[in-house]
C-alpha cells in the first residue's frame, strides 16, 4: 500500500489498541525472506584463486594473541610435513602486515607480462603481503574502500601458480576483510587462535559464531601462550587459566594444539626464522603437529568445499 495510507493505518491501529495484531499480519517468515533477498542481491559470487587448491584462514577475534606467528609457522610446518606439496602464505592485514618480518622477505615483487605480482619465496613457501608494496615505516591511513581495493589486488592479482595449501593470515576482528574473503573465496576451513584468558576467549567466540553463520568449517582452536615454564624448577605454569577447554566444548571443535609462551618462538619471528625450522627446539614439534592436524582435516573434507 502507499506509504501515507500505511502510516495512517498504523496510527489508527495504535489508537484502537490493536497495534500488535497489525504487526502480526506481517509474518516473520516473510520479513526474513525479504531480508535474505536483499542480502543475496549484493553478495559477490565466490571465485577460486587460479591454481590454488585449499585455502585455510588463520583468524582471531582479539589482537595480540600471536596469530601471525602461528600462521607463519603453520605455513612452513606444512612444507616440512608435506615437502611434495606447494604452500602459499597470504598476509591480508593491510594496516599491520608482519609476514615480511617473520618470513625475512623485504623485496618488492616483480610483475609478470600480464601485470600479476610474483610472490616472494622463502623456506619453500610462496608469500604475498601488502607489506612488500610499502615502505617499512609508512603508516596506512586509509578508509574502508581503499582497503578493500588493496585486498582485491592481493586476492586476484598475484601469480600464485599451483598451490596445494594457501594459509591466509587475517587481521584481528570480524570486519570487512573477513567478510570479503569468505564471500569471494571458497574457504576450506579456519583455524581460530586465542589465549586462555576471558578477554580473548569472549571475542574468539564471537568470531566462531560469525564463521558458523557464514557456513565456514572451523578446523579447531589453537591455544597460544598456554603456559610458561619456570626457569628454576621447569614446572609448567598456567598464567591465563584453562578457559579454552570450555570454549572448545561450547563450539564443539577440538583444541588442535596448546603452544607455550616461549622466548625462542618470539625470537624466531623477530629474526625471520620460524621456530618450526629448528628440529632441535621442542616448539618445532608442536607446530608440525598442528600442520598434520590441518592436513588431516583438509583430506577429510576433500570433496566437501563450502559454497555460500
Word description of this protein:
With 308 residues, the chain is α/β, with parallel strands linked by helices. It has a single domain (52-307), classed as P-loop containing nucleotide triphosphate hydrolases (Rossmann fold). The protein has helices at residues 3-15, 19-24, 28-42, 67-81, 99-102, 144-156, 176-184, 198-213, 244-251, 263-271, 282-300, and strands spanning 52-59, 87-91, 120-122, 125-129, 163-169, 189-194, 218-223, 228-229, 236-237, 255-258. The strands form two sheets. It has an eight-stranded mixed beta sheet with strand order 3-4-2-5-1-6-7-10, sandwiched between helices. The chain has a two-stranded antiparallel sheet with strand order 8-9. Helix 8 (198-213) links the parallel strand 6 and strand 7 (218-223). Helix 4 crosses helix 11 (282-300) and helix 6 packs parallel to helix 7. The longest helix is centred in the last third of the chain and has 19 residues, at 282-300. The radius of gyration is 23 Å and the shape is globular. The two termini are 34 Å apart. Residues 13-19 have low confidence and may be disordered. This is Iron-sulfur protein NUBPL. Keywords: 4Fe-4S, ATP-binding, Iron, Iron-sulfur, Metal-binding, Nucleotide-binding. Belongs to the Mrp/NBP35 ATP-binding proteins family. It holds the Pfam family ParA. InterPro entries: Mrp-like_CS, Mrp/NBP35_ATP-bd, NUBPL-like, P-loop_NTPase, YlxH/NBP35.
Amino acid at each position: 500500500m502507499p506509504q501515507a495510507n500505511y502510516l495512517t493505518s498504523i496510527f489508527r491501529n495504535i489508537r484502537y489498541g490493536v497495534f500488535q495484531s497489525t504487526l502480526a499480519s506481517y509474518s516473520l517468515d516473510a520479513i526474513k525472506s525479504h531480508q535474505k533477498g536483499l542480502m543475496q542481491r549484493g553478495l559477490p559470487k565466490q571465485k577460486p584463486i587460479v591454481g590454488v587448491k585449499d585455502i585455510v584462514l588463520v583468524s582471531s577475534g582479539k589482537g595480540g594473541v600471536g596469530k601471525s606467528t602461528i600462521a607463519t609457522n603453520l605455513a612452513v610446518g606444512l612444507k616440512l610435513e608435506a615437502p611434495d606439496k606447494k604452500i602459499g602464505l597470504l598476509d591480508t592485514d593491510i594496516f599491520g602486515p608482519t609476514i615480511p618480518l617473520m618470513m625475512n622477505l623485504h623485496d618488492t615483487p616483480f610483475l609478470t607480462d600480464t601485470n600479476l605480482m610474483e610472490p616472494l619465496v622463502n623456506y619453500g613457501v610462496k608469500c604475498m603481503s601488502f607489506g612488500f608494496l610499502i615502505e617499512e615505516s609508512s603508516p596506512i591511513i586509509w578508509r574502508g574502500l581503499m582497503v578493500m581495493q588493496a585486498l582485491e589486488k592481493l586476492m586476484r592479482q598475484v601469480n600464485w601458480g599451483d598451490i596445494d595449501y594457501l594459509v591466509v593470515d587475517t587481521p584481528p576482528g570480524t570486519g570487512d576483510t573477513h567478510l570479503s574473503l569468505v564471500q569471494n573465496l571458497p574457504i576450506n576451513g579456519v583455524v581460530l587462535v586465542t589465549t586462555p584468558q576471558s578477554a580473548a576467549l569472549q571475542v574468539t567466540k564471537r568470531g566462531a559464531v560469525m564463521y558458523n553463520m557464514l557456513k565456514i568449517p572451523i578446523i579447531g582452536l589453537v591455544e597460544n601462550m598456554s603456559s610458561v615454564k619456570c626457569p628454576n624448577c621447569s614446572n609448567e605454569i598456567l598464567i591465563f587459566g584453562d578457559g579454552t577447554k570450555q570454549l572448545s566444548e561450547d563450539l564443539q571443535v577440538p583444541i588442535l594444539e596448546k603452544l607455550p609462551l616461549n622466548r625462542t618462538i618470539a625470537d624466531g619471528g623477530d629474526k625471520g626464522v620460524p621456530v618450526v625450522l629448528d628440529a632441535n627446539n621442542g616448539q618445532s614439534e608442536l607446530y608440525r603437529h598442528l600442520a598434520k592436524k590441518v592436513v588431516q582435516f583438509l583430506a577429510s573434507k576433500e570433496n566437501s568445499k563450502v559454497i555460500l
